[in-house]
Amino acid sequence: MTRRSCAIYATGIVCAHLLIVGIALVVAQVFQTMINSRLKQEITLTEKSQMFESWKNPPPPVYMEYYFFNVTNPEEFLAGGKASVKQIGPYTYREYRPRENVTFLENGTKVYALNPKSFVFVPEKSAGDPEVDIVRTVNIPFVAVMNELNSYSFYVRPMVSMYISSLGIEIFMTRTVHEILWGFKDPLLSKIHKLKPDVDEYFGLMWKKNGTHEGEFVFHTGEQNYLDYGKIDTWNGLRKMSWWSSNQSNMINGTDGAVFHPLIDRNELLYIFAADLCRSIHLAYVEDVEVKGIQAYRFAPPNDVLMNPKENPTNAGFCVPAGECLGTGVLKVSVCREGAPIVVSFPHFYQADPAYINAVDGLNPNKEEHETYLDLQPTTGVPIRACKRAQLNIILKRVPGFPKTKLINETIFPIMFVNETATIDDNSASQMRTLLLIVTLVSNFPLLIVGLGIILLLVLVVVFCRNRQKKTAKDDTAYTQVSDKLDDSSEKPANQPMKNGSYIAMSPVEAQKC
Predict the structure, then answer these.
(1) N or C: which end of the chain has fewer CB atoms below 10 A?
(2) pLDDT in tens, 144-163
(3) Integer Cα distance of 349 and 513 in angstroms
(4) Beta 184-185 vs 202-203: how paired, if at all?
(5) Global pTM?
């Protein structure tokens, strides 16, 4: 056997082994199962790794952009007309949210943590100076007092109304952006504070929220089930709330939005508990996106999250008292925020009933600027980009005993909205791309084996065919047919030597004389 033949046979054996092993691995999904098992078992909070450190101290910068609705025609609105507002902002703050007092519980299956948040103003990302810029908006403390007095005798309200008017307090107030956000000493609350010391005399939308946390959380680490990774076990010691009118609405579902389980599927619903909304919301898959070279799934709240209970009966539990429901696109949260009748929605009443949009001039809802969404890397479950947008509104309506409200048309009045954004930083994005490349190569290793086997098979076929062609050509040209008819010597010249009549190796050979 020649070297060429040995090489052909060896190539064939190697090719056969590669194809058999590769196809077997593809069918059995050994490497994919190994990768999935690794992700399920080891991407947990108990792993002392960069994942855990990122959970404790999130590296992507979080920015809070505050936009305010400046009221341009307060007198016209109080006279029964339609309010007109003009959006101003953004006023941007960098948010820092490290997790503190981290303590593992129950053999590492759960973890306790606080999540204090602090804010630092970022002038280069802002439209103005919050300590200088003025905004005219609804006097929320005044509205809160009127709302509280609804339960008092009718005869008490006119006297309170006259007293408030003597203080020069109106339904609309003019303050700096900084005061409305971070607090000021309110004259009406100061008077009440003297009678009821437990009532704070300061008011601000973010009053006492700089450097404080939203409650005590206990999370699942995913040690027992990877699908539970990051899910909230208890909030302030509670596994369910008591504000809403149904058990389903009171459930605390999902994570806090910072982490999700690995191996996310497009068809699943993701749940987030929003402490500031006092409820859990769900997000559904929208589309595939790419962020800094990383493929991600975009999830967003579907239309049914804030849909009217007539169209989505599961939302009936958010009507408090039971049966008193608002329309599509808004949620009354004053049940968990004592005081004014506060209502939340998406900015500019995006996805809300057109009646709320048309009740105020100056609103222009659109998906690009007002949609909340979350871009997740599906293999690891890590948020790559997040954009949480929410609007704060207040219900303004006629209150018997307060003459200034007698001509008001009931309106859900927009105050401000916040755009909370976070995008993975370049260093973390580079590490994520490297990790995903390794995962892709390892999980596709059986396909690489099959591909190599196919290449060797093609090489084997080509070499074999060429070898056969060479052998056939040699057989055809090395020998010619030997004539079986002897030459007639009588017809040849006498002086010409005789020949044997055969041609060997393409050359005539003279016959030997006897």
Answers:
(1) C
(2) 999 888 888 888 899 999 99
(3) 119
(4) antiparallel
(5) 0.80
